[in-house]
Amino acid sequence: MFYPVRRQKNKPDPTYIIIDGEAASWKGGGAYFLDWREGKRKRKLAGRTPLEALEAWRTATGVANGLIPAEPDETSHDLTPDNADETAGETSDIKGITIEEGVKQYLEAVKATKGTATHSSYETCLRWAQQHIKRHLIYRLGRNDLLGLFAAGREEKLNQKTINKHVTVVLNMVRHHDHEIKLKKGDWPKTTDKPIEVYTEEQIQKFFTACTDDERLLFQVFLCTGFRDKEVAHLMWSDIDYRLSKIMVTAKAEYEFSPKSYEIRSVNVPRSLLDSLKKRQKSSQSLLVFPSAPHPTRKGYGGGIDKHMLETCKEIALRAGLNCGHCSGTYTVKRSKTRKEKVPYSCKTDPRCERWYLHKWRHTYASHMIGVLGLKGLQLAMGHKDIATTSKYLHFLGGDGIKEKVESSDLAKLIR
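Above: the chain sequence. Below: its structure as C-alpha coordinates.
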Protein backbone atom coordinates (compact mmCIF):
# COMPACT_ATOMS: atom_id res chain seq x y z
CA MET A 1 0.00 0.00 0.00
CA PHE A 2 1.26 3.48 -0.90
CA TYR A 3 0.75 6.76 1.00
CA PRO A 4 1.79 10.24 -0.19
CA VAL A 5 4.23 12.21 1.99
CA ARG A 6 3.44 15.64 3.36
CA ARG A 7 4.72 18.70 1.49
CA GLN A 8 5.87 21.91 3.16
CA LYS A 9 7.01 25.02 1.28
CA ASN A 10 6.83 23.08 -1.99
CA LYS A 11 9.23 20.44 -0.64
CA PRO A 12 8.37 16.89 0.48
CA ASP A 13 8.69 16.07 4.17
CA PRO A 14 9.29 12.27 4.24
CA THR A 15 8.94 12.10 8.02
CA TYR A 16 5.14 12.45 7.67
CA ILE A 17 2.69 10.58 5.42
CA ILE A 18 -0.90 11.51 4.60
CA ILE A 19 -3.54 9.00 5.76
CA ASP A 20 -7.18 9.89 5.13
CA GLY A 21 -6.18 13.52 4.65
CA GLU A 22 -4.31 13.73 7.98
CA ALA A 23 -0.51 13.93 8.48
CA ALA A 24 0.88 11.04 10.51
CA SER A 25 4.45 10.63 11.76
CA TRP A 26 6.38 7.99 9.82
CA LYS A 27 9.12 6.15 11.71
CA GLY A 28 10.30 3.73 9.07
CA GLY A 29 9.41 0.38 7.59
CA GLY A 30 8.78 -0.21 3.91
CA ALA A 31 10.32 2.10 1.32
CA TYR A 32 9.89 5.46 -0.39
CA PHE A 33 9.11 5.86 -4.09
CA LEU A 34 9.12 8.78 -6.52
CA ASP A 35 5.95 8.90 -8.60
CA TRP A 36 5.59 11.01 -11.77
CA ARG A 37 4.34 11.01 -15.36
CA GLU A 38 6.27 11.01 -18.63
CA GLY A 39 3.33 10.26 -20.89
CA LYS A 40 2.88 7.13 -18.79
CA ARG A 41 2.89 7.03 -15.04
CA LYS A 42 6.28 5.99 -13.61
CA ARG A 43 7.55 5.00 -10.20
CA LYS A 44 11.13 4.69 -8.88
CA LEU A 45 12.52 3.46 -5.57
CA ALA A 46 13.84 6.45 -3.61
CA GLY A 47 15.32 4.70 -0.57
CA ARG A 48 14.30 3.38 2.82
CA THR A 49 14.97 6.42 5.01
CA PRO A 50 13.61 9.99 4.91
CA LEU A 51 17.08 11.33 4.07
CA GLU A 52 17.51 8.94 1.15
CA ALA A 53 14.04 9.84 -0.13
CA LEU A 54 14.77 13.56 0.07
CA GLU A 55 18.11 13.12 -1.74
CA ALA A 56 16.40 11.12 -4.49
CA TRP A 57 13.75 13.85 -4.87
CA ARG A 58 16.45 16.55 -5.13
CA THR A 59 18.31 14.54 -7.76
CA ALA A 60 15.17 13.93 -9.81
CA THR A 61 14.22 17.62 -9.56
CA GLY A 62 17.70 18.62 -10.70
CA VAL A 63 17.45 16.32 -13.71
CA ALA A 64 14.00 17.66 -14.58
CA ASN A 65 15.27 21.26 -14.37
CA GLY A 66 18.34 20.48 -16.47
CA LEU A 67 20.76 21.17 -13.61
CA ILE A 68 21.97 17.55 -13.42
CA PRO A 69 22.68 15.33 -16.45
CA ALA A 70 20.04 12.63 -16.89
CA GLU A 71 21.19 9.02 -16.50
CA PRO A 72 19.82 5.73 -17.81
CA ASP A 73 17.31 4.55 -15.22
CA GLU A 74 17.14 0.88 -14.33
CA THR A 75 15.10 1.49 -11.19
CA SER A 76 11.97 3.18 -12.59
CA HIS A 77 9.00 1.31 -13.96
CA ASP A 78 6.10 2.17 -16.25
CA LEU A 79 2.96 1.87 -14.17
CA THR A 80 0.51 0.65 -16.77
CA PRO A 81 -2.62 -1.18 -15.62
CA ASP A 82 -0.82 -4.48 -16.37
CA ASN A 83 2.18 -3.94 -14.09
CA ALA A 84 1.07 -1.35 -11.49
CA ASP A 85 0.25 -3.87 -8.78
CA GLU A 86 3.24 -6.06 -9.63
CA THR A 87 5.70 -3.13 -9.33
CA ALA A 88 4.33 -1.93 -5.99
CA GLY A 89 6.38 -4.45 -4.04
CA GLU A 90 9.21 -5.03 -6.46
CA THR A 91 12.70 -3.97 -5.30
CA SER A 92 14.82 -7.00 -6.10
CA ASP A 93 16.04 -5.61 -9.41
CA ILE A 94 17.53 -2.50 -7.80
CA LYS A 95 21.22 -2.41 -8.70
CA GLY A 96 23.78 -1.14 -6.22
CA ILE A 97 23.46 0.70 -2.93
CA THR A 98 22.63 4.32 -2.12
CA ILE A 99 25.44 6.68 -1.21
CA GLU A 100 23.83 7.42 2.15
CA GLU A 101 23.66 3.73 3.06
CA GLY A 102 27.12 3.11 1.63
CA VAL A 103 28.63 5.85 3.79
CA LYS A 104 26.85 4.47 6.84
CA GLN A 105 28.17 0.93 6.27
CA TYR A 106 31.70 2.13 5.53
CA LEU A 107 31.85 4.26 8.69
CA GLU A 108 30.66 1.28 10.72
CA ALA A 109 33.56 -0.74 9.28
CA VAL A 110 36.01 2.08 10.05
CA LYS A 111 34.71 2.32 13.61
CA ALA A 112 35.27 -1.40 14.09
CA THR A 113 38.82 -1.44 12.73
CA LYS A 114 40.36 2.00 13.36
CA GLY A 115 40.60 4.58 16.13
CA THR A 116 37.98 7.15 17.10
CA ALA A 117 40.00 10.03 15.63
CA THR A 118 40.20 8.27 12.26
CA HIS A 119 36.48 7.53 12.33
CA SER A 120 35.68 11.16 13.13
CA SER A 121 37.99 12.42 10.39
CA TYR A 122 36.54 10.07 7.76
CA GLU A 123 32.99 10.99 8.76
CA THR A 124 33.79 14.69 8.28
CA CYS A 125 35.24 14.00 4.82
CA LEU A 126 32.28 11.90 3.68
CA ARG A 127 29.61 14.27 5.01
CA TRP A 128 31.28 17.11 3.13
CA ALA A 129 31.40 15.04 -0.07
CA GLN A 130 27.70 14.12 0.24
CA GLN A 131 26.81 17.80 0.10
CA HIS A 132 28.40 18.07 -3.35
CA ILE A 133 27.73 14.69 -4.98
CA LYS A 134 24.60 14.76 -7.15
CA ARG A 135 24.31 11.01 -7.65
CA HIS A 136 22.05 8.74 -5.63
CA LEU A 137 23.66 5.31 -6.09
CA ILE A 138 27.29 4.39 -5.49
CA TYR A 139 27.70 2.46 -8.73
CA ARG A 140 26.77 5.64 -10.64
CA LEU A 141 29.79 7.51 -9.27
CA GLY A 142 32.55 8.13 -11.79
CA ARG A 143 35.61 10.22 -12.55
CA ASN A 144 33.62 13.39 -13.27
CA ASP A 145 32.01 13.25 -9.83
CA LEU A 146 35.45 13.20 -8.16
CA LEU A 147 36.68 16.04 -10.37
CA GLY A 148 33.57 17.91 -9.23
CA LEU A 149 34.70 17.44 -5.62
CA PHE A 150 38.11 18.91 -6.44
CA ALA A 151 36.36 21.94 -7.99
CA ALA A 152 33.94 22.32 -5.06
CA GLY A 153 36.83 22.32 -2.59
CA ARG A 154 38.65 25.05 -4.51
CA GLU A 155 35.46 27.15 -4.67
CA GLU A 156 35.22 26.88 -0.89
CA LYS A 157 38.91 27.86 -0.67
CA LEU A 158 39.85 24.68 1.20
CA ASN A 159 43.49 23.71 1.50
CA GLN A 160 44.45 21.43 -1.40
CA LYS A 161 45.69 18.73 0.97
CA THR A 162 42.30 18.81 2.70
CA ILE A 163 40.50 18.46 -0.64
CA ASN A 164 42.72 15.55 -1.67
CA LYS A 165 42.06 13.82 1.64
CA HIS A 166 38.29 14.19 1.19
CA VAL A 167 38.49 12.64 -2.28
CA THR A 168 40.76 9.83 -1.05
CA VAL A 169 38.27 8.89 1.67
CA VAL A 170 35.44 8.88 -0.90
CA LEU A 171 37.53 6.53 -3.07
CA ASN A 172 38.12 4.25 -0.08
CA MET A 173 34.40 4.17 0.65
CA VAL A 174 33.60 3.33 -2.98
CA ARG A 175 36.18 0.53 -3.07
CA HIS A 176 34.74 -0.85 0.15
CA HIS A 177 31.60 -1.52 -1.86
CA ASP A 178 33.52 -3.15 -4.75
CA HIS A 179 33.12 -0.23 -7.13
CA GLU A 180 36.24 1.13 -8.81
CA ILE A 181 36.70 4.69 -10.08
CA LYS A 182 39.77 5.27 -12.22
CA LEU A 183 41.36 8.70 -12.23
CA LYS A 184 43.70 9.69 -15.04
CA LYS A 185 47.30 10.77 -14.62
CA GLY A 186 47.30 14.41 -13.63
CA ASP A 187 43.81 14.40 -12.10
CA TRP A 188 45.21 14.73 -8.59
CA PRO A 189 46.16 18.39 -7.96
CA LYS A 190 49.66 18.80 -6.62
CA THR A 191 50.16 20.13 -3.11
CA THR A 192 52.88 22.20 -1.52
CA ASP A 193 54.16 21.14 1.89
CA LYS A 194 53.99 23.82 4.55
CA PRO A 195 57.30 24.63 6.24
CA ILE A 196 57.81 22.60 9.40
CA GLU A 197 57.59 24.88 12.42
CA VAL A 198 59.76 24.25 15.47
CA TYR A 199 60.34 26.06 18.75
CA THR A 200 63.67 27.86 19.10
CA GLU A 201 65.97 27.28 22.07
CA GLU A 202 65.23 30.81 23.31
CA GLN A 203 61.47 30.20 23.18
CA ILE A 204 61.81 26.88 25.01
CA GLN A 205 63.90 28.43 27.78
CA LYS A 206 61.39 31.27 28.30
CA PHE A 207 58.51 28.80 28.20
CA PHE A 208 60.05 26.51 30.84
CA THR A 209 60.89 29.49 33.06
CA ALA A 210 57.18 30.42 33.13
CA CYS A 211 56.09 26.86 34.04
CA THR A 212 55.25 25.35 37.39
CA ASP A 213 57.24 22.20 38.23
CA ASP A 214 54.44 19.92 37.01
CA GLU A 215 53.94 21.91 33.81
CA ARG A 216 57.67 21.92 33.09
CA LEU A 217 57.88 18.13 33.43
CA LEU A 218 54.89 17.64 31.14
CA PHE A 219 56.39 19.64 28.29
CA GLN A 220 59.88 18.25 28.87
CA VAL A 221 58.32 14.85 28.11
CA PHE A 222 56.79 16.27 24.93
CA LEU A 223 60.16 17.75 23.94
CA CYS A 224 62.31 14.69 24.71
CA THR A 225 60.02 11.95 23.32
CA GLY A 226 58.33 13.47 20.27
CA PHE A 227 55.12 11.75 21.42
CA ARG A 228 51.73 12.78 20.09
CA ASP A 229 49.36 14.46 22.54
CA LYS A 230 47.23 11.33 23.10
CA GLU A 231 50.38 9.26 23.64
CA VAL A 232 51.47 11.63 26.42
CA ALA A 233 47.97 11.83 27.88
CA HIS A 234 47.79 8.01 28.13
CA LEU A 235 51.37 7.57 29.40
CA MET A 236 51.51 5.26 32.43
CA TRP A 237 54.28 4.67 34.94
CA SER A 238 54.60 1.12 33.63
CA ASP A 239 55.67 2.60 30.26
CA ILE A 240 58.87 4.01 31.76
CA ASP A 241 61.95 1.79 31.82
CA TYR A 242 64.39 3.51 34.20
CA ARG A 243 67.03 0.82 33.71
CA LEU A 244 67.21 1.18 29.90
CA SER A 245 66.40 4.94 29.91
CA LYS A 246 63.40 4.43 27.65
CA ILE A 247 59.77 5.52 27.53
CA MET A 248 57.32 3.35 25.59
CA VAL A 249 54.07 3.87 23.74
CA THR A 250 51.75 0.96 24.44
CA ALA A 251 48.07 0.14 24.01
CA LYS A 252 45.75 0.86 26.96
CA ALA A 253 42.64 -1.31 26.64
CA GLU A 254 41.17 0.12 29.85
CA TYR A 255 41.20 3.60 28.26
CA GLU A 256 40.33 2.36 24.74
CA PHE A 257 43.65 3.72 23.47
CA SER A 258 45.77 2.21 20.70
CA PRO A 259 48.94 3.75 19.23
CA LYS A 260 48.59 5.21 15.76
CA SER A 261 48.96 2.43 13.16
CA TYR A 262 48.81 0.08 16.19
CA GLU A 263 52.59 0.34 16.48
CA ILE A 264 54.16 -0.10 19.91
CA ARG A 265 57.51 1.69 20.15
CA SER A 266 60.07 3.01 22.63
CA VAL A 267 62.22 6.14 22.73
CA ASN A 268 65.50 6.77 24.54
CA VAL A 269 65.37 9.85 26.76
CA PRO A 270 67.95 11.80 28.85
CA ARG A 271 68.69 10.50 32.34
CA SER A 272 67.89 13.93 33.81
CA LEU A 273 64.29 13.59 32.58
CA LEU A 274 64.01 10.12 34.09
CA ASP A 275 65.26 11.44 37.44
CA SER A 276 62.47 14.06 37.44
CA LEU A 277 59.88 11.44 36.51
CA LYS A 278 61.05 9.08 39.26
CA LYS A 279 60.71 11.88 41.80
CA ARG A 280 57.16 12.59 40.59
CA GLN A 281 56.22 8.92 40.71
CA LYS A 282 56.98 8.73 44.42
CA SER A 283 54.20 11.23 45.18
CA SER A 284 51.78 10.10 42.47
CA GLN A 285 48.63 8.17 43.35
CA SER A 286 47.58 7.52 39.76
CA LEU A 287 48.58 4.89 37.20
CA LEU A 288 48.82 7.74 34.71
CA VAL A 289 51.90 9.95 34.64
CA PHE A 290 49.89 13.08 33.81
CA PRO A 291 46.32 12.69 35.08
CA SER A 292 44.00 15.66 35.17
CA ALA A 293 44.29 17.61 38.41
CA PRO A 294 41.80 16.58 41.15
CA HIS A 295 39.00 19.03 41.82
CA PRO A 296 39.86 21.35 44.75
CA THR A 297 36.57 20.72 46.60
CA ARG A 298 34.85 17.69 45.05
CA LYS A 299 36.43 14.50 46.37
CA GLY A 300 37.16 11.89 43.72
CA TYR A 301 36.48 14.32 40.85
CA GLY A 302 39.33 14.55 38.35
CA GLY A 303 42.48 12.48 38.24
CA GLY A 304 41.64 10.86 34.88
CA ILE A 305 43.04 11.44 31.39
CA ASP A 306 44.24 15.02 31.03
CA LYS A 307 42.53 16.41 27.91
CA HIS A 308 43.49 20.02 28.54
CA MET A 309 47.19 19.98 27.61
CA LEU A 310 46.73 22.25 24.58
CA GLU A 311 45.02 24.90 26.70
CA THR A 312 47.83 24.58 29.26
CA CYS A 313 50.45 25.07 26.54
CA LYS A 314 48.76 28.26 25.30
CA GLU A 315 48.29 29.62 28.82
CA ILE A 316 52.00 29.19 29.59
CA ALA A 317 52.98 30.85 26.30
CA LEU A 318 50.85 33.89 27.19
CA ARG A 319 52.29 33.92 30.72
CA ALA A 320 55.83 33.84 29.27
CA GLY A 321 55.12 36.71 26.84
CA LEU A 322 55.67 34.46 23.83
CA ASN A 323 52.43 35.06 21.91
CA CYS A 324 52.87 36.57 18.45
CA GLY A 325 50.27 39.30 19.10
CA HIS A 326 48.66 38.97 15.66
CA CYS A 327 46.10 36.17 16.17
CA SER A 328 42.52 37.40 16.52
CA GLY A 329 38.99 36.19 15.93
CA THR A 330 35.95 35.12 17.92
CA TYR A 331 35.03 32.14 20.07
CA THR A 332 31.60 30.91 21.13
CA VAL A 333 30.47 31.11 24.76
CA LYS A 334 27.36 29.27 25.94
CA ARG A 335 25.39 31.73 28.06
CA SER A 336 22.42 29.44 28.67
CA LYS A 337 20.85 26.26 27.31
CA THR A 338 19.42 28.17 24.36
CA ARG A 339 21.70 31.20 23.96
CA LYS A 340 25.25 31.32 22.62
CA GLU A 341 27.39 34.38 22.15
CA LYS A 342 30.46 35.06 20.02
CA VAL A 343 33.23 36.83 21.94
CA PRO A 344 36.16 38.57 20.19
CA TYR A 345 39.74 37.76 21.24
CA SER A 346 43.32 38.79 20.55
CA CYS A 347 46.33 36.69 21.47
CA LYS A 348 47.90 39.82 22.91
CA THR A 349 45.70 39.21 25.96
CA ASP A 350 44.18 35.75 25.46
CA PRO A 351 45.78 32.27 25.51
CA ARG A 352 44.84 31.58 21.89
CA CYS A 353 48.03 32.10 19.89
CA GLU A 354 48.16 29.85 16.82
CA ARG A 355 51.97 29.71 17.01
CA TRP A 356 51.73 27.53 20.14
CA TYR A 357 50.36 24.02 19.65
CA LEU A 358 51.26 20.53 20.86
CA HIS A 359 52.39 18.97 17.57
CA LYS A 360 55.09 21.63 17.29
CA TRP A 361 56.89 19.97 20.22
CA ARG A 362 56.98 16.79 18.12
CA HIS A 363 58.46 18.70 15.18
CA THR A 364 61.06 20.24 17.49
CA TYR A 365 62.09 16.80 18.78
CA ALA A 366 62.47 15.45 15.23
CA SER A 367 64.48 18.46 14.05
CA HIS A 368 67.03 17.89 16.84
CA MET A 369 67.16 14.09 16.73
CA ILE A 370 67.46 13.37 13.00
CA GLY A 371 71.18 14.13 13.21
CA VAL A 372 71.49 11.81 16.23
CA LEU A 373 69.30 8.87 15.17
CA GLY A 374 69.53 9.04 11.40
CA LEU A 375 66.55 8.76 9.07
CA LYS A 376 65.60 5.16 9.87
CA GLY A 377 66.12 5.58 13.60
CA LEU A 378 63.97 8.70 13.65
CA GLN A 379 61.24 6.90 11.71
CA LEU A 380 61.09 4.23 14.41
CA ALA A 381 61.15 6.79 17.23
CA MET A 382 58.37 8.87 15.65
CA GLY A 383 56.23 5.87 14.75
CA HIS A 384 55.97 6.88 11.09
CA LYS A 385 54.47 4.21 8.87
CA ASP A 386 56.07 5.71 5.73
CA ILE A 387 59.68 6.87 5.72
CA ALA A 388 58.67 9.62 3.29
CA THR A 389 56.97 11.33 6.24
CA THR A 390 60.24 11.25 8.20
CA SER A 391 62.15 12.57 5.18
CA LYS A 392 60.54 15.97 5.65
CA TYR A 393 63.00 16.58 8.49
CA LEU A 394 66.12 15.97 6.37
CA HIS A 395 66.59 19.67 5.71
CA PHE A 396 67.48 20.10 9.40
CA LEU A 397 70.67 18.10 8.79
CA GLY A 398 73.99 19.76 8.11
CA GLY A 399 73.04 23.15 9.52
CA ASP A 400 76.01 23.40 11.88
CA GLY A 401 78.59 25.90 10.71
CA ILE A 402 76.89 26.64 7.40
CA LYS A 403 76.30 30.30 8.22
CA GLU A 404 79.99 30.83 8.97
CA LYS A 405 81.00 28.97 5.80
CA VAL A 406 78.70 31.12 3.68
CA GLU A 407 80.07 34.33 5.20
CA SER A 408 83.65 33.26 4.46
CA SER A 409 82.94 31.91 0.95
CA ASP A 410 84.32 33.39 -2.28
CA LEU A 411 80.75 34.29 -3.23
CA ALA A 412 80.35 36.51 -0.18
CA LYS A 413 83.61 38.30 -1.02
CA LEU A 414 82.20 39.36 -4.39
CA ILE A 415 79.54 41.59 -2.81
CA ARG A 416 81.65 43.29 -0.16
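The chain has a mean pLDDT of 86.
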